[in-house]
């Protein structure tokens, strides 16, 4: 199973995948549109930003990445005909008690909403995981979307990768939604436009890699993370929260 579209094992260039190297911070970006519903790739628009030296360049690089992410979030929002006054639900997935899986919680903590304002149209939720709540995340989100007349969702979660050099360094935005738990092979229903009835933008960063990707003799369920995982997740969460806030302000 793959979370990042460019790790699906297919010749993506023949399918329209394009890449571009930027002049600053060694950043590269990739873009792809999947329109074939019969393919085994999720239909939607994909944008990936790779910055191998993100945690070396620090603040200037973080601000730059946030600007690029917000720019493409705005583009996707425009393509989906989303309006500034629309109700948006920010869904911050993951297990906040596990460092590698708390990207959603970091974003949740760094996004400010004006909850007391009657005109507030931005809502956020950090639903935790099924084993902690006994409630499927998809059911919870679906209930909120319907009861609150939400117009679209933004979903954030940690991803897995098969390349250790991409841990914490790749940001993927897609209009194809997201499946809670897919990275660790616990599949539930997908949070996307088909299940929610509203557009769903998802943002993810890989912070986990199965040990078997590095050594075939390793246990299949052993998951590895970066050494500085707490700091890295915190930085990535701040970047994403900054990008989202810029789009919604």
Question: Which features does this protein show?
Answer:
single chain, 249 residues, alpha/beta, Rossmann fold, nine-stranded mixed β-sheet, 9 strands, 22% strand
What does this structure look like?
By secondary structure, the chain is of the alpha/beta class. The protein starts with 17 loop residues before the first strand and ends with a helix. The model has no long low-confidence stretch (mean pLDDT 92). It has a single domain (5-248), classed as Rossmann fold (3-Layer(aba) Sandwich). It has seven helices and nine strands. The longest helix is centred in the N-terminal third of the chain and has 21 residues, at 59-79. It has helices at 54-57, 59-79, 103-110, 130-133, 137-147, 193-196, 229-248, and strands at residues 18-21, 28-34, 44-50, 88-92, 122-125, 152-160, 170-174, 200-210, 223-224. Strands 1, 2, 3, 4, 5, 6, 7, 8 and 9 form a nine-stranded mixed β-sheet that branches. It is 29% helix and 22% strand.
Can you lay out the helices and strands and say which pair or pack?
Blueprint: E1 18-21, E2 28-34, E3 44-50, H1 54-57, H2 59-79, E4 88-92, H3 103-110, E5 122-125, H4 130-133, H5 137-147, E6 152-160, E7 170-174, H6 193-196, E8 200-210, E9 223-224, H7 229-248
Parallel strand pairs: 4-5, 4-6, 6-8
Antiparallel strand pairs: 1-2, 2-3, 3-7, 7-8, 8-9
